[in-house]
Amino acid sequence: MKDKTIDYILRATWQSVARMYNEEASKFDGSMAIGFALLSIDKEEGTPSSYISNRMGMEATSLTRTLKTLEEKGLIIRKKNPDDGRGVLIYLTDLGKEKRELSRNTVLKFNEVIRQNVSEDKLKNFIEVADVITELINEKKIF
C-alpha cells in the first residue's frame, strides 16, 4: 500500500474528530460549530463577532448563519457595542452558558483521553509538525 499523503492524514483525522464532536453535540441538540462558537464567546463580557470568526477560522457568511442559529436556540443575544455604534457584541444567555460548559467539558474530555493514550513526546512532536505546517501555509511557502 502506498504511503498516505500528509494532507490525507490531516483531512481524514479532522473528519473523524468533527464526526465525533457532532455525534456528541447532537445528544444536546447542538453541533460542533455551535459548540466551538459558544467556546469563542466570553462567559461574562460581550464578544465582537469578528473575534469569533477569526478564532473559528470562519468566513463572515458562515458565522452569520451560525450566530442566527445560536440566537434562534436562545443561546446568545446581540447588543450594540457601546464603544463602536456600528459594531455588535455577542453575549451568552443563561442557556448559552450551560451549553458552553457542556462544550468545554467535551473538549477537555477529548484532550484528556488523547493525553492518556499518546506520550508527551509524541504529542509534542505532533504539535510541532502542526505548527510548521501552519507557518509554511501562512508564510505562503508552499504555493
UniProtKB/TrEMBL annotation:
Q: Which SUPFAM superfamilies match?
A: Winged helix' DNA-binding domain (SSF46785)
Q: Which GO terms describe its molecular function?
A: DNA binding; DNA-binding transcription factor activity
Protein keywords: DNA-binding, Transcription, Transcription regulation
The UniProt record lists the keyword DNA-binding: yes
Q: Which domain of life is it from?
A: Bacteria
Please name the SMART domains in this protein's record: HTH_MARR
Q: Which parts form a coiled-coil structure per UniProt? A: none
Q: Could you tell me which residue ranges the HTH marR-type domain spans?
A: 1-135
Q: Does the keyword Lipoprotein apply?
A: no
Protein name, entry field? DNA-binding MarR family transcriptional regulator
Q: Which organism is it from?
A: Flavobacterium lacus
